[in-house]
Design brief:
The protein is of the alpha+beta class. The chain has 10 helices and 11 strands. GO terms for molecular function: DNA-binding transcription factor activity; sequence-specific DNA binding.
Amino acid sequence: MPTNLPGNQFQTFSHFAPDTLFHIARLEEHVPQLNHSHKPHAHPFYSVTWVQEGSGIHVNNGKAYEVAPNQLFFLAPGKMHSWQLSADTKGYNLFFDSDFCRGTSGHLLYRYPFFHANKEHPLLQVTDPDALFADIFDFIFSEYQSKQANRFEVILSALHIVLELSDRLYHEQWNGNGTYLYDRIRQYEQLIEHQFLTVRMVSDYAAQMNVTPHYLNQLCKKVVGKTASQLYHERIVLEARFLLAYTSDSVKEIGFRLGFQDPSYFVRFFRKNTGETPADFRQRKNHQR
């Protein structure tokens, strides 16, 4: 059930697909509901909307954007938004949790500039008639409906293509100084992805990038609004959540694997970053299955 926040609505897609980290629906099937829920609301997940036909207005983070055919709209968790769409609107709404992307994009999702509505453009206009977006969204929807074995692995690969093609298109449409900064963030995140279990100091990552720790920290705060340490810690938390949910390793073993010699410190670290203890998180995930 949706959880109400003060003055606004915080919605989940669990009523569509309980106990999953991904959902996709035809946009035309939800136009009446979206127009009825015209008050700004937020989601605890990422979404990508492909508008193939139709018109209207999408308000994202207090800014209104005109809806037109062949557009992609992007929304990060916690961003306030609302829709007003014409009755002939067609396309897809795609929802996913960051955990769904673990192993490909995962914690790197915020490196994509289009997910930062407060600083960047949260939409793309697809003008190339040979672009693959329509076909890819059709494929993802068909695969989702098929319920075949390994369908989510196949969908994850297709989603990664959507995000990478969107990133390429974004840099073509909004080329500027900001793209260099995002490339540097991407470099930092790639270093973390390959070394987070062995390299634990921000200063060591900064040295590999030939910058000072202070510069790296300021860069992270400017581009994504988080410190370099926060980005590193988020990767540790993501790995901890995965290990707690999908392995039988004890909390102590998981903490040690992630570089915490003191199990109690690992528990405090996890609770500080997630709001619950590792044991509570594991129990909740087991209950959802």
